[in-house]
Write a structure and sequence with these properties.
Blueprint lengths: L5 E4 L3 H12 L4 E5 L22 E4 L6 H11 L3 H8 L1 E2 L4 E4 L1 H14 L3 E5 L13 E3 L7 H11 L4 E7 L2 E3 L9 E2 L15 E6 L1 H13 L21 H6 L27 E7 L6 E4 L8 H8 L15 E7 L2 H4 L5 E2 L2 E6 L9 H19 L12 H12 L29 H21 L5 H9 L2
Length: 465
């Protein structure tokens, strides 16, 4: 057993969670973050766990949605990201969305206050020093070029890459509420909501057709030569790319009008609806859901002001794109997230090819616990593949086809069937409920059988409670 600390590179969601988990198991951690000394193309602050795209952790429904199930599992694992996400929640229908500034500040404070966590600022250029015998690389999709190149050379694999997109933010006071209205789709209330959590801007057919035409004819920023062949991630597709796939695509995507009734004219069915989701606790900022874009800034202002209710919109942040990098995890990582070519290196977060805030943090939980248990001389077994965390781990470390590996959100398609009964595409509330119930039960047993993961569980086991 080594007495040296665990070094974690990157203080995003995965790195912050990994540090929290390892330290809570009693192992000292040094958390390295290059900001503010070295900036990235997307971050605006030097805070830990800064959210650079959406402020949504997506559905919080633990019974019918795989993301909500992952939320529930992470809460059982004493997740810092979920704790502070819950504390900084803003209304978002059935989703868990957060005030990004409050959230990041709270995560940063928790890490700074932990007696076993030291945060060091500065870039790690290239591979970590050889005397760092336990390292978690959680640098995310914006990994610095020197480190990315070192990883590529060591693994013998070219880095895979895709574009991730940022949606614009609108000031609430600039929205014309005589045309827009508050309502969640199907009036669904979420963890911090009332069923009236989204601002809805309706379009008739003529307005929609004109909007699509403007999207397709707008001016867009040029990609650099090395960016041109980089594929987009399907779960975060720029709005203009969706529009180019056909005139009806957006009406079946982010602009679908179902589950919404315009109180200003309830007898008329909207042809399409643009939704805005609260972005901060004060309710002064709203982001346009699904409106990631590469449009030039002037064009964004012109085109988005065509949306009824946004004619005079003020945009404190416009949309944008940045390049994301991830490794071919099924080929180069083992089941405990260690690099086969150099086992002292573990990986966590989006760089592994998981996609999404909570997925990244969940992999951070596992990486932190695996590294800490190794330091403690009692390596942990892997969570069951029947759990959301176990199915995600299985996918990125071997369950996916290495030849066609692409980023993946958690979904029920990654879970093994129950007693072989369910084959093909999952569907139906009963099936999802059964899968969720099994997952939570199996995770609970996993945590009870391995009390060293949680000091509180260890105390309960020792006391017989």
């Amino acid at each position: 057993m080594s007495n040296k600390k665990i070094h974690i590179i990157g203080a995003g969601l995965a790195g912050s969670e990994a540090a929290w988990q390892a330290a809570n198991m009693g192992v000292p951690v040094v958390l390295h973050e290059m900001r503010p000394h070295q900036k990235t193309a997307a971050h605006k602050t030097d805070g830990c766990a800064e959210l650079v795209c959406s402020n949504s952790f997506r559905s919080d429904d633990a019974e019918q949605n795989a993301v909500g199930l992952l939320h529930a599992e992470m809460r059982k694992c004493n997740s810092l990201i979920m704790r502070e996400g819950d504390a900084s929640a803003v209304p978002a229908g059935g989703a868990l969305a957060v005030d990004r500034e409050i959230f990041s500040a709270a995560v940063t404070k928790a890490l700074n206050d932990h007696p076993l966590i030291t945060i060091e600022r500065g870039e790690i250029s290239g591979l970590p020093p050889e005397d760092w015998d336990s390292v978690i690389i959680a640098t995310g999709p914006l990994t610095s070029i020197p480190l990315a190149e070192a990883i590529r050379e060591l693994s013998g694999e070219d880095s895979l890459a895709f574009f991730d997109a940022i949606a614009p933010i609108v000031e609430f006071d600039s929205i014309d509420m005589s045309k827009a209205w508050f309502q969640s789709r199907y009036d669904k209330a979420g963890p911090a909501g009332t069923g009236k959590d989204y601002i809805n801007c309706p379009m008739n057919k003529e307005q929609y057709d004109a909007f699509i035409a403007a999207l397709l004819s707008a001016e867009y920023g040029e990609f650099k030569e090395w960016e041109k062949d980089t594929p987009y991630f399907e779960g975060c597709m720029p709005i203009e790319v969706m529009a180019s796939r056909g005139p009806e695509t957006l009406r079946f995507g982010p602009m679908k009008p179902v589950g919404l009734t315009n109180p200003h004219d309830p007898t008329v069915k909207s042809h399409a609806v643009v939704q805005l989701r609260q972005d901060n606790k004060l309710g002064t900022l709203y982001n346009i859901v699904g409106f990631q874009t590469k449009m030039k800034y002037g064009e964004q202002t012109r085109v988005f002001r065509m949306i009824p209710g946004l004619e005079n919109a003020a945009f404190p942040r416009l949309g944008g794109l940045h390049r994301n990098t991830f490794i071919n995890s099924p080929k180069i990582l083992n089941e405990s997230l260690q690099m086969k070519a150099q086992p002292r290196l573990r990986f966590a977060g989006q760089i592994t090819g998981c996609e999404g805030y909570v997925e990244s943090a969940a992999v951070g939980i596992m990486a932190g616990r695996f590294a800490a248990s190794e330091k403690l001389g009692a390596p942990l077994p892997f969570p069951a593949k029947t759990t959301a965390m176990g199915s995600l781990l299985n996918h990125i470390t071997g369950g996916a086809n290495a030849e066609t590996f692409q980023p993946m959100n958690i979904n029920f398609g990654l879970f093994p069937p129950i007693d072989g009964k369910f084959k093909g595409k999952l569907g139906g509330k009963d099936k999802r409920k059964m899968l969720s119930s099994r997952a939570l039960n199996d995770l609970e047993n996993y945590l009870l059988e391995n009390p060293a993961q949680n000091p509180e569980s260890k105390k309960r086991a020792a006391s017989g409670r």
